[in-house]
Specification:
The complex is a heterodimer of chains A (254) and B (451). Chain A has helices spanning 10-22, 51-77, 84-97, 112-134, 156-166, 200-207, 214-228, 236-242, and strands at residues 2-5, 30-33, 43-46, 138-139, 145-149, 172-176, 181-185, 191-195. Chain A is an alpha/beta fold and 254 residues long. Chain A has two domains: 2-126, no CATH class; 135-250, no CATH class. Chain A has a five-stranded mixed beta sheet with strand order 4-5-6-7-8, with helices on one face. The model of chain A has no long low-confidence stretch (mean pLDDT 94). Chain B is of the alpha/beta class.
């Protein structure tokens, strides 16, 4: 058994995959790990993230499996599950070994590695789909839009990408509460992520007043949601199924 | 009269929103799907092919669009409608600017995916359509809104106004209201089948023409690129499920609609021509119709396979696919590792997604029941109808009575006073006393199409 200890980043994990191939490791006897837990009778390899190597891996993945399946792998790697690196490695290894056609990387769901990666990928893309709908902006004084989310997986990049395309003319901030991470988009510009471990930025943002019209407009929406309900069809159980309670913490209408 | 006019003037936006939302809530369609449009740096908004649900109301229905009427003034007197002329309800009218501001402010805060604008008939159909057009034009040009817009085409309106509106919106719909012309005559004396179908045909032709033009010139304006939809009210008139399903099939085939929506009749008015619904709105009927609708659109079923003149109602206890399966045992069992995609789709418990996954996965390996579970097949339903490498999961009988007993719950069989040996069709009044009425998971399956 050989264990590659990778840094927890796309670059780290892709470099790990590169190293495993460079060493001609047998996929069955190889593991990509993100933690430092000691393992008995295993050969350990520390992987130093390398931009060039990870780029090469990305290029290969895109060429061999196509953009869509590469996105699938990226989704899986954004999961909070500890086994994500290993699941993706197993999937890539079987895909290359079986020489699957473009768009067919996740076909073999009877394989446990593929199934795992597929499930993780689905889980992440579902969560980011949900947040694209359930996220709520508030308008701060000065017109900046500000939203808070608390996702299980690291979906902020996907969410930022979506809103950057949707609101090119807005300055907006999205704060991932659990990861203490800001997504910042500038009007007619690009977006980037900012780690805020010390909490200085969030304190500053929370200190800014809401815009004068904010209370009125959020009240209008609450009224709208209330009125649109058909009393004769009242069905809170269905509502809870479609919109689980944990999303509601930061939603205007609840 | 003077008093009414002055009181109308003083309505705040908030009061108007309440009145005009309440007046619009019985319209079903709230989907924002069918259009993929990238953002534009000079505008606000984009569209996502699959649509996005932004919230869910207390009745479990999705809130995706700002669904409002422009006005609930109406010159018509349709008996099922709360906005009918003879009803004494508060009336309100939005100005185009108010609608635009609401849409933009809601959209910026990510409350909604776009606007769904419908209207009561004010003055005459053409005038109403013109007002809708003006509002949408303002929203697209002055407010630079690039998100999803769904509007109603008003039957009887001038064709030119409908055409101009079509180039600004993503989806248009003309409500069929009631499944048959007879029903329409009784309950909506001012509406005529012909005037409803005319704009529907016009939009269909417009979509065709626009598609051809876009094929030639990439930047040709797009006409109703998200397709058109319609809705009909279920249970207000005595049509049976077989008639309704045939109407829906006709609409899909002849008018190429994207969606037909069914809306269980909610009684808001007292009228001698309206049925009494002691059990509440016929939600189970509506649910079965949606299930059958998916079978028509994605599973390769035809209306005549599901129902016929001699059995014109859906089964209360079995969903339409199970019902079809137990009556066509000659098709089963289906061999998972060899059967064509179309046959897999006909197995209860296998949806479009799982059928695709089976076809993809079996290229690399022989699938077992364990694998089917992983893939997402509902084993407890499918196991009676499939074999894996020639073997069933465990010994079962391919017999109608045996299957019905195993596919239905004990509570329902006791309630209906049968032991599963005889099961019956749904009648108009069974609703509300049935445990399988609105299983949340079932509803979810209808939404995602995994029946």
């Amino acid at each position: 058994m050989r264990i590659y200890r990778c840094e927890d980043s796309l670059e780290g994990i892709f470099t790990g995959i590169y190293r495993a191939y460079e060493d001609h490791s047998d996929p069955k006897e190889t593991e990509l790990s993100l933690d430092e837990d000691p393992r008995l009778f295993a050969e350990e390899v520390q992987v130093v993230p390398d931009r060039e190597k990870s780029k090469k891996v990305v290029r290969t993945l895109c060429r061999r499996f196509g953009e869509a399946d590469y996105m699938g792998l990226c989704h899986a790697l954004a999961s909070r599950d500890d086994g994500r690196a290993q699941a993706v490695y197993r999937t890539v290894a079987q895909g290359l070994a079986r020489n699957v056609a473009v768009g067919h990387l996740f076909d073999n769901l009877a394989d446990d590695g593929v199934l795992r990666a597929f499930k993780l990928s689905q889980n992440v893309s579902r969560e980011s789909q949900h947040l694209k709908g359930f996220l709520r902006f508030e308008e701060l004084k000065g017109g900046v839009l500000y939203a808070k989310i608390h996702p299980g997986n690291h979906v902020l990049p996907f969410v930022m990408e979506h809103f950057a395309d949707r609101f090119p003319q807005e300055n907006f901030l999205i704060y991932d509460v659990g990861r203490e991470l800001f997504g910042v988009h500038r009007r007619l510009g690009t977006w980037n992520l900012m780690q805020d471990s010390t909490g200085t930025l969030i304190r500053e943002v929370e200190g800014v007043n809401r815009s004068p019209s904010e209370a009125e407009i959020s009240e209008l929406f609450r009224r709208f949601c209330h009125t649109i309900t058909i009393e004769a069809r009242q069905n809170p159980k269905l509502q809870r199924n479609m919109l689980p309670l944990h999303f509601r913490e930061y939603m205007t209408e609840f | 009269m003077m008093e009414l006019l002055t009181s109308r003037k003083t309505l705040s936006v908030s009061e108007k929103l309440e009145i005009l939302t309440d007046a619009a809530k019985y319209d079903v369609a709230c989907t924002s799907s069918g259009v993929e449009r990238k953002g534009d740096s000079t505008m606000t908004g984009n569209c996502v092919k699959a649509g996005i649900c932004h919230s869910f109301a207390g009745d479990g229905r999705c809130i995706s669009l700002l669904k409002i009427l422009m006005t609930n003034e109406c010159i018509y007197d349709c008996k099922y409608c709360q906005n009918r002329r003879s009803n004494d309800v508060p009336r309100a009218t939005f100005t185009p600017e108010e609608i635009c501001t609401l849409t933009m402010e809601f959209y910026r805060r990510n409350y909604i995916e776009g606007l769904f604008l419908s209207s009561g008939i004010i003055g005459n159909p053409t005038l109403t359509m013109e007002l809708i057009y003006r509002t949408i034009y303002l929203l697209r040009t002055r407010y630079r809104f690039n998100g999803y817009i769904h509007v109603k085409a008003i039957p009887g309106a001038d064709a030119e106004v409908i055409r101009s509106t079509g180039f600004l919106v993503d989806r248009m719909s003309v409500n069929l209201e009631l499944p048959t012309a007879d029903g329409l005559r009784v309950l909506a004396p001012n509406k005529h089948r012909k005037s409803i179908l005319t704009p529907m045909r016009q939009i269909q032709n417009g979509i065709h023409q626009s598609r051809d033009e876009v094929a030639l010139y990439r930047h040709a304006p797009r006409f109703v690129s998200g397709g058109q939809s319609t809705q009909m009210i279920i249970g207000a008139t005595p049509e049976n499920d077989w008639q309704i399903l045939n109407v829906a099939e006709g609409l899909y085939r002849k008018f190429e609609l994207k969606r037909v929506f069914y809306s269980a009749f909610v009684k808001v008015n007292e009228d001698k021509d309206l049925p009494a619904l002691p059990g509440g709105p016929p939600l189970l009927r509506e649910h079965r119709l949606y299930q059958a609708d998916w079978l028509l659109r994605f599973y390769g079923f035809e209306a005549k396979e599901l129902l016929d003149e001699s059995r014109p109602f859906f089964n209360v206890m079995l969903d339409p696919k199970e019902d079809w399966a137990v009556r066509h045992l000659e098709y089963f069992p289906v061999e998972i590792n060899r059967a064509p995609y179309e046959s897999l789709l006909r197995v209860p418990g296998i949806g479009v997604k799982s059928a695709r996954r089976i076809v993809a996965a079996r290229r690399s390996t022989n699938l077992t029941f364990e694998d089917l579970k992983k893939i997402g097949v509902v084993i407890k339903r499918a196991l009676f109808f499939v074999t894996c490498s020639g073997k069933m999961m465990y010994p079962t009988k391919l017999e109608e009575d045996y299957l019905v007993r195993n596919l239905t719950s004990k509570e329902d069989r006791i309630r209906f006073g049968t032991d599963g040996m005889s099961y019956r069709q749904m009648s108009l009044f069974d609703d509300g006393m049935f445990s399988g009425k609105m299983e949340a998971s079932d509803k979810w399956q209808v939404v995602t199409g995994q029946i």
